[in-house]
Specification:
5 helices; single chain; about 110 residues; mainly alpha; three-stranded antiparallel β-sheet
């Protein structure tokens, strides 16, 4: 499932909802390529720390955890930056998954 988010300037971003296969296979690189430097650094540091404390054997554990949560984190960050659901389907899907509660007063979804 993909969510279409739109900002006030009319820029539309299509982001995936759910498990992040790209994060699962490529670690912090998808966040880095999306320009999400904060979460790329957090993923890299947690992976490095896990590797240090487990002598390299546990470096994959943070990657699996972030695979389950990164897309939701990315959507929430975009919403904080002013993006809003561009259509009713995206609005209802984000509400069903608990990412957003409801449209702010006066917001016209799909406009």
């Amino acid at each position: 499932m993909h969510a279409r988010l739109k900002n006030e300037a009319g820029v539309v971003k299509e982001v995936k909802i759910g498990f992040s296969w790209t994060t699962f296979f490529f670690g912090f690189f998808p966040a880095l390529f999306r320009g999400d430097l904060k979460w790329a650094a957090i993923m890299f540091i947690t992976g490095a720390l896990a590797a240090v404390f487990t002598f390299g054997f546990g470096a994959w554990i943070p990657g699996i955890i972030f695979s389950f949560v990164y897309n939701k984190i990315n959507i929430k960050d975009l919403l904080e930056k002013g993006y809003r659901p561009s259509d009713e389907q995206t609005q209802s899907e984000l509400q069903a998954r608990g990412i957003i509660t409801s449209a702010p007063a006066g917001q016209n979804v799909g406009a």
